[in-house]
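Thread: Modeling a multi-component assembly for a lab meeting

Hi all, long-time lurker, first post. My supervisor asked me to bring a structural picture of a complex we are working on to next week's group meeting, and I have zero experience with this. I have the sequence lines for every component (658 residues in total). Could someone generate the structure of the whole assembly? Inputs are pasted exactly as I received them:
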Amino acid sequence: MRKGIMTLVLLFGLLPLVQAETAQEKGLAIIVESDNRDKGWQDSSADMLMTLRNKSGKESIREIRVKNLEVEGDGDKGLTVFDQPRDVKGTAFLTYSHALVPDDQWIFLPALKRVKRISSSNKSGPFMGSEFAYEDISSFEVEKYSYLYLRDEVLEGQDCFVLETKPLYKHSGYTKSTVWIDKSEYRIQKIDFYDRKDTLLKIQRFNDYKHYLGQYWRAHTMTMENQQNGKSTTLQWNNYTFQAGLTDKDFEKNDLKRQR
Amino acid sequence: MILNAKGKASLILSLCLMVLAAKLHANEWTGYSAVEYRYFQHESLNAEPSQHDFSVVVAPEFYHEWDDGNQSLIISPFLRVDSEDSERTHADLREARWLIVEDDWELTLGIGKVYWGVTESQHLVDVINQTDLVENTDTEDKLGQPMINLSLFQDWGSVDLFILPYFRERTFADKEGRLRSQLVVDTDQATYESAAKRHHLDIALRWSHSLGDWDLALSHFYGTNREPVLQLNNTFSAFNPYYAIMNQTGFELQNTHDAWLWKLEVIRRDTSLETFTALTGGFEYTFYGVFDSDIDVGVIGEYLFDDRNDELATPFEDDVMIGTRITWNDEQSSELLMGIIQDMDSSDTAWNIEASRRIGNRWKASVEGRFFSVDQAQSALYQIRHDDYIQLELARYF
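Re: Modeling a multi-component assembly
Sure thing. I ran the full set together rather than chain by chain. Output:
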């Protein structure tokens, strides 16, 4: 009997190896491929126009400048400076992101000229009153999620892989997300976010992809629609530049004070 | 509403600099103007002041950069015109500095503003700039400080060296102003320990570093004490400020872990009149997204200590501050900060409320309230025990 079970285990255990990878393995492989295609950009900077729209269609805007530095073997470094609204002009955030341990984050308050280390445990809170949570705009790292390949699907005429991701970091506002990645260029096209009660909370769409340095795709329009409160936020990205020679020295606490 | 000589001089200087600045290309004007109203709950203990105070602020800022952003110029004049207090009607150059940035160092020349410290209830280590006390009793408003500041950046931290060639005197309310001692401070009669008076060359050095969850800094200041000793004049009709020379060593520490911030500031100050140690230490913990909303609620607790144990030198010699910071995370960035400082040796308390909300893209409304419950006649706060107020401010940013 025992021998029979062993044979059975051996038989079925070997089957996936020769046959096909599991849904988890396939999900991870797709993400790793997508991540690998986006390696080597070194540094980037861009201007972001954020438009907040409430249920009755009333709009307000934020203007933000973003610089990023690619860090090998760790999360990226980011520097974010506000131009609008005017009362927060000159306010700057510096983030050293990490995959699973909490990010290091500092804020500069221009009125007091004060640099303040702040807690980064606020993952699920809204960024500047928008429908984007802090975790939606933070640096992507493969280790932050678990992955499950669900199916292939055509989304707006594009062949896509559909994955389910679950956050592995603490304090996320989501139980899971469904992610559409196009097969031709491995770019994220759409994400459905599910809240802690496992109900659909938000839908993010990525449009106007442009190609930089012959390798890196950047979506120039991102729209986040909240399915529960009727509000939405659009991010419009402009003036992307890559490989401007930024270094660690441009992402220090001291740099916060002189961001304009 | 007459500007004093000091005010006139800095106003003329700022106007000249603005004209000069406007001639440069690629410039940028920002800043704000605001109207403010203060209602004092009680009649003043003194004869002159009223229960109502209106004022207007203009605070433009000019910025220009060149050399790929490695060099820049900032000029920020400040003007307040107050309906009651002639000392609160004042002009200042908050900043007028030229900044040169290189890879491993930065040099600031001119009038600048520098903040040191980590705690919320008081700011012990922050000694570079003089407090503009007529602006607010929270000591967070500062006068522009002439300086040469060299910053060096190394793997083992940043070092800041300051040479401060000119001293700014603290501002105090006039007879018609509230939030003052019974006898006014006659700022025209300031005396100094140093024969060089306000031209004494002050120097300061600070090392700061971040190591994982820890942010720390060590500083030393040698020069004119920003905090004057108030001495009765010959006719017992006013206080004259006396500025001693001091050595102050300061230490700052913050640990940031999950939603916890642990903070400590310690100073050792040595002057010819006194030597003492003071500290502020405590925590801030934030509950993010309370009750499934977007609202964050922070709880702040700090202990304030001063080994002089003299309520007249500082009311915060053995006190506890408990406060809360509520952030709505809404489109208007609504926020509220509320705190109480309780003296541990008496029933004396000071309450503080600050709230603000943006209106549209360019306006901001703020409310501030300070309330005092002080019975100890020997406390520095006793003189302002009837000066509880509510302040409304509407600011427009441009």
